[in-house]
Description:
Elements: H1 2-16, H2 24-31, E1 38-40, H3 41-54, H4 61-71, E2 78-80, H5 81-88, H6 96-107, E3 115-116, H7 117-131, H8 137-147, E4 154-155, H9 157-165
Antiparallel strand pairs: 1-2, 3-4
Amino acid sequence: MKIIIGLIVLLVSATAIAGDNSGADFWMQQQDKNGDGKISEKEFLARTKQKQKDSGRKYNRQFAEKQFKQRDTDGNGYITEDELANWLGVKKQQDPDTKKEDMFAVFDADGDGKVSRKEFVRKHQEWAKEGGYDFHENLIDSKFDSIDGSGDGKLNREELGKWTKGR
């Protein structure tokens, strides 16, 4: 169960920063129900509980609380848009096209304009470690293969963008 929740967190993390009307600002809109510009623990836990219920999973409050604390880096009891952006590994930007580039840069560690399998796996390992959940490389390898439409062993911006937008 922990692996499934972990993979969903990874996918949501990747998805949240790709495509139009997304990024840390998109997460903020989805979770900041009272519109005060920050996500309280109560808002975060309620959203997490609903998402897990909607997907047929059992709600794990302890895991959700841990996730909240990891994102609330200043420990003030709220997650700001900057904290979300930092946790997602992107710069907070308002331009949707720039956000797409930021998403690509999250994976393209060497900056060569392509995401190798090694880079893709390494980023997911990093997110798993930060999230405190199990990592299974074979699942990420399978995901990489399904995204790599050209079969060349590298993901380009278009392939990665289709994957994140389709989630």
